[in-house]
Each structure stands twice: as C-alpha cells, then as structure tokens.
Structure prediction request, 249 residues.
Amino acid sequence: MDYLLQLAASPTAWVALATLVVMEIVLGIDNLIFISILTNKLPEQHRAKARRIGISMALILRLGLLSTIAFIVQLTEPVIDVFGHAFSWKDMILIAGGLFLLWKATTEIHHSMDPYEQTEASVSSKVTIGFAAAIGQILMLDLVFSIDSIITAVGMTEHLPIMIIAVVVSVLVMLLAAEPLAKFINDNPTVVMLALGFLIMIGMTLIAEGFGAHVPKGYVYAAMAFSAVIECLNMLSRRARQKRSAEQA
Prediction:
C-alpha cells in the first residue's frame, strides 16, 4: 500500500503513465483496424459480439502477459541462429504475425477486387464456422500485438501498476472506438482498401522488426495519418460532387 501511495505522489510516475497510455493506444490502432475489417465480414448480428470478444481477449492476454514479465523479458533472448543471424521468440512471433497479416490483407483485397456470389443456404451454413474462424484469427493477432505492447511497456517503465493501468485504459479506448470505426469502414468501401493497405504496411513492419531492422513507429503512423487525411479529402470531394449533381437534377 505504501508503495502505491509513493507511486501516486510521484510526478515522474504520472508522466510515465501518460506517456505509456498514449503509446499503448497508438499501438492498439493496428489491432483495432484488423478486428474491424475481420468482424465486418461476419453477418451483421454477429459483428458486435465478435468485436467485444476480440477486444476482451486482447485485455486478458495483455494482463496475463503482465503477470509473467520475467518470462516476457526472456522472449527477447536469442534462441536460434540462422546464417549468422540470431532470432528470439519475440522475433519469430513478430515474423509469423507479419506473414499472417500479409496473407490476410492480400486475400481480402483479392476478394474485394473479384467478389464471388454465394447462395443463402451456403452463407447460413457457414455462419458458425465463420464466427469461430474470425475469433481464432483475432486471437492470433491479439497475441502478436499483445506481446509487442507489453515488451514496449516493460521498456518504458519498471512499475507494474503503471503498466496495468495503461493497458486497461488503452483497451477501454479500443472498446469504445471499435463500433464507430467498424461502422465507418463498413459504410465507406474505399476506406476498406485503405485499411487493408495499412495492414500490409503493418505486416511488413512486423517482419522487418523480426529480422532486426528497426522501423520507427512514428514514420509508420505518420504515413497512415497522411493517407487517412487524403482519403477524407477524397470523401468530401465525392460528397460535394454528389450534392451538386442532386441539386442540378
């Protein structure tokens, strides 16, 4: 109790908490984009439930990993050597997660460019399988993003309560933002393609990190923000043209 009181009275601890909360929220954007795109592929009545399960599992995974910090730190230790390059468990998990993101995003882009028809019978027979598959894929990426998130937290502060608060706050923000983001992506088809492009970039970043090439996150998120601004301008332009066409008609 005295430890918590001392921590609460420390300005340095509050600065560390604010910095870590912002960092965790930013890192959670990747996870949230993936969840939004994947759950939008489900029948409408299953989407909200899948998003809640996916984000809740992200919180459970993060808190579970925080309880094993000593183990998490060991994940950065080299375990195998391939052609003179040492790989840790973290490296291999990041590479596997990056490859999965590349495969998933490429597959979704292919489906968007060359959609196929399904009968109502086949769709209804695949609802349960689709839901289970979606949850499984969300959990896989939750694990990758959670390990990256917790290792970042461990590198920024040594105080476990600060890490727990930052993780809980970031996941609550994800939970609040999930519904609006998913609806926005679903209502704007061009945004889906942009988001899939983000997933490809994130996948490449994870693979690069796994091979030891550090990619500053600021560059990645700056590129994503710039692309999002351009897409917003395109959307405003399209709406303005549609409004003018309606007035002229």
About this structure: The mean pLDDT is 78. The chain has one domain: 2-215. The longest strand covers residues 78-82.
